[in-house]
Design a protein that fits this description.
The structure is a single chain. This protein is mostly helical. It is 80% helix and 0% strand.
Length: 215
């Protein structure tokens, strides 16, 4: 099998890899913010539940979480959710990354001075308006480098979908490598992930520059 043929076959899974990446970001970024706010809640029960959630999701392997979400419902309740594997894969990725994003958000929010909240209150802002219009934009600017780092990691982690035999690009490459006894599919996959991350880094860099107050 020629290199061009390998690239053509692996490109069949490229759309699935991109689907995992973009859908995970779509769900995990807002979910992470919600988890972060609940984690900082004054209600100790809610805060404790979120602490456990974050601890479990960050303390166990993503591979295990993929297996649990894909096959767990069948073994526990007899519900088969693994037919369309993109759904459980995205759920597992979103829950996992939301836990990491939640801690990043929390660090950014807690770094803001109380004086800004007090000043906003004097100006007649509600707590919600203060958070949305004043605090959140500053938080986003502060946490952007950390978020970028997690997004770069997500690009590489999409290959973990092979655990549940989801036919994304790396899974197809692995199958070709086994059938052809060749290492070339892994090289092709490595080049793809490198280029994908280069694009992500460039986009996030541009976004960071736009948010810079000191250009």
């Amino acid at each position: 099998m020629t290199i061009l043929t390998m690239i053509t076959k692996m490109s069949e899974g490229l759309g699935r890899t991109c689907a995992i990446f973009f859908l995970t970001l779509l769900f995990s970024l807002p979910l992470g913010l919600i988890v972060s706010l609940l984690r900082m809640s004054r209600n100790k029960v809610v805060s404790s539940i979120m602490k456990v959630y974050i601890s479990v999701l960050r303390g166990t392997p993503l591979m295990l979480q993929l297996l649990a979400v894909t096959y767990g419902p069948y073994y526990l309740f007899g519900i088969n959710v693994s037919r369309e594997k993109l759904i459980p894969v995205v759920i597992a990725f979103s829950l996992n990354y939301a836990a990491y994003f939640a801690e990043i958000y929390r660090g950014g929010i807690e770094s803001m001075s109380l004086g800004q909240y007090e000043a906003a209150e004097v100006l007649g802002y509600t707590k919600f308006q203060c958070f949305i219009r004043i605090i959140l934009p500053q938080v986003i600017k502060r946490i952007l480098p950390s978020v970028t780092n997690e997004i770069v990691t997500l690009v590489k982690d999409t290959s973990m979908a092979f655990t549940v035999a989801y036919q994304e690009m790396f899974t197809i490459g692995k199958q070709i490598a086994n059938s052809q006894t060749s290492f070339m599919p892994f090289v092709i996959a490595g080049v793809f992930y490198f280029l994908f991350n280069a694009i992500v880094g460039w986009v996030m860099g541009r976004f960071e520059k736009k948010l810079s107050y000191y250009r």
